[in-house]
Specification:
The protein is mostly beta strands. The chain has no helices and 21 strands. Strands 1, 2, 3, 4, 5, 6, 7, 8 and 9 form a nine-stranded mixed β-sheet that branches. Strands 10, 11, 12, 13, 14, 15, 16, 17 and 18 form a nine-stranded mixed β-sheet that branches. A three-stranded antiparallel β-sheet has the order 19-20-21, with no helix packed on it.
């Protein structure tokens, strides 16, 4: 049985961790950096950063992004683009506000910095301005070498209502999408249910009157792209369910036809699943680290000790089956 542990236990939520390993010439303080969701309204900054030289001992650094506006900021993704004057580029989502408005109007935005730990400053580019909700960006190279952006967006024109994941081409400096999003996966299994009776008065759903109705809301989010199996097939990871209840990591695998098949039906084939008997709950929102020696790791958050414990970042070896 695999036993997981927090990398740096603290009384602070470490949700949505993203790991970056800059090349030696671009390192500032550490070999590895992790960026997490979180913000400090006093300092006006968001996204706590952690650094490590060995993936074992971690140090809390400052918050990475100068936000300049009081709002909810989620799920940063950081890329190193050496051809740019400010080569560290962060994509993240921002809502229209905080509190009840913290789930409303998320758009994916761009920020940049000269060093991996920041400070990052928003560059003014909004990548998903035509969507009412977009979160969880992940940037990677497609098999043809082009850049792709995967992210999560809402689907309300037909059932099942909820969040799914998409992929779009993006330009080389990550300032705009160069093609329309194509669907990678929408929810289809019972374990994807976020809330069986959810009321969302800020969202327009055809035929739904929030004064009278609720909806069965599903969530497939936090895509991880760029993986290729030993057989040469595309693989995408995702997180599904409810981040404060049942939450787990599933996988999409390319079929011979080129279509993607969800291999995680809720009965088996979880990439990561909860183990309540070991007080390990709600693992999810992972990012992928591939090392030059061929080793692969997944960084993710989980709750330890209790279902309502604060999320803590955790690292696990990733092996192909």
């Amino acid at each position: 049985m695999t036993v997981y542990r927090p990398l740096l236990p603290e009384d602070y939520d470490q949700g949505d961790p993203y790991i970056l390993a800059p090349p030696p010439e671009a390192r500032s303080q550490f070999r590895y950096y992790v960026y997490t969701t979180g913000e400090d309204p006093v300092s006006g900054r968001a996204f706590p950063v952690y650094g490590s030289d060995d993936l074992v001992i971690w140090q809390r650094l400052d918050d990475a992004l100068i936000v300049g506006v009081q709002s909810s900021h989620w799920a940063p993704c950081v890329s190193y683009l050496p051809e740019l004057e400010l080569p560290f580029v962060m994509l993240y989502s921002r809502a229209i506000g905080v509190g009840e408005e913290g789930h409303v109007g998320h758009t994916i935005r761009r920020a940049h910095a000269s060093r991996p730990e920041g400070p990052f400053v928003d560059s003014g580019h909004v990548l998903t301005g035509d969507l009412d909700f977009a979160i969880d960006p992940d940037v990677y190279r497609a098999p043809d070498g082009s850049l792709r952006l995967a992210f999560a967006m809402d689907f309300v024109d037909d059932e099942p209502y909820g969040t799914g994941i998409v992929e779009a081409a993006i330009n080389d400096d990550l300032t705009r999408l160069t093609g329309p999003p194509r669907i990678l996966a929408r929810p289809q299994h019972d374990w994807h249910v976020y809330e069986p009776s959810r009321v969302m008065p800020w969202k327009t759903i055809p035929g739904v009157d929030w004064r009278k109705h609720s909806v069965r809301w599903h969530t497939v989010e936090a895509p991880v792209g760029g993986l290729v199996s030993p057989e040469g097939k595309r693989v995408y990871l995702y997180s599904g369910g409810c981040f404060y209840s049942f939450y787990a990591v599933g996988a999409l695998v390319e079929e011979e036809t080129g279509e993607l098949r969800d291999v995680t039906d809720g009965e088996h084939d979880f990439v990561l699943g909860p183990h309540p008997e070991d007080e390990f709950y709600a693992p999810g929102h992972c990012s992928w680290l591939h090392l030059p020696d061929g080793r692969d790791y997944l960084l993710f958050h989980a709750r330890f000790g209790a279902p309502d414990a604060k999320r803590q970042m955790t690292l696990a070896p990733f092996r192909w089956t």
